[in-house]
Fold these 2 entries.
Entry 1:
Amino acid sequence: MPLINIHLNDIDKKRLKNYIERHTDKAMSDFVRKTITEKIKIEESISKIEPLKTVEIPDYIPKEKYVIFVNGAVLAVGNNPSDLAEIAIQKFPNFPFIIKYNGPKKKPIEYFYMGLTEFHG
């Protein structure tokens, strides 16, 4: 069994100890061990979710707008992706979502880097 060191400041230790004493009949180490085990199980189950299938933007979505899909269904339409992501997280925090732009594809930005050993003026 691997050994895990978890460091908490004194205030958080006291708060955790008080919580455990009030809500469970377990020792602090058992509670932390069980909590970590549950978190690992959740992470493993989330990683097993199949990748999202590609979704097509319906014809009724206005041009030059962003659209967000949750489980393949249109959730919202808006002007910027951050507002749409906020809506999706508030309504469906545990569901995967896709944001697409209904318009011409934008060119990727090209970068050019140059390293000079001496300053040239």
Entry 2:
Amino acid sequence: MKKRDPKDQGKYEPIEVASHRDLGRHRRVINERFNNDPEMARLLLVNPIYAMEDIGVRMTPEIRDHIIETLRFPSRLKERLATLENELQTGFQEVGFAEKLPLNGEQRARLVFEVLKLQPAEPEAARAMEPKQLQPYSGEHELLAKLAEYERLRHGAQIFAPRAQYDAYKRGEKRHNWVRRVRFKI
């Protein structure tokens, strides 16, 4: 991968994006810029916000948050979370657990060890449980399998690389050979 020239930073005419409508209106130009710079297009997968800024897209903080949330929580994920939330609340009522989602560590531990009466694998788990600690118990009870899935999904579908890691990819210090090419319809 060729190293990026820092002089390329200002080579694009700025595109101001303050709304979803602005983003749609400039979609063609943005797609052309990425199609003309395959290495930059691949960086979209590392962090789409930084890649868009590097091709001259200036975004308000609100539209940045909107883009990140839309990518992290696509509609299918939101639907699955809503379904799990309803099923969990119904399941909580059935076993006599009066808490609301999301649960904290103490509430998770109380559900697993006091309400469902499972044995803790380690004594500290009986006081508080992190979401990852639910996984070993998910085969013990359907409610715990759903809770483990809910905890995993509520953090979103993707987490994008921080600035330092993005810059390392951009400079060619890190490789991203998991994708050969990204092309956009114009």
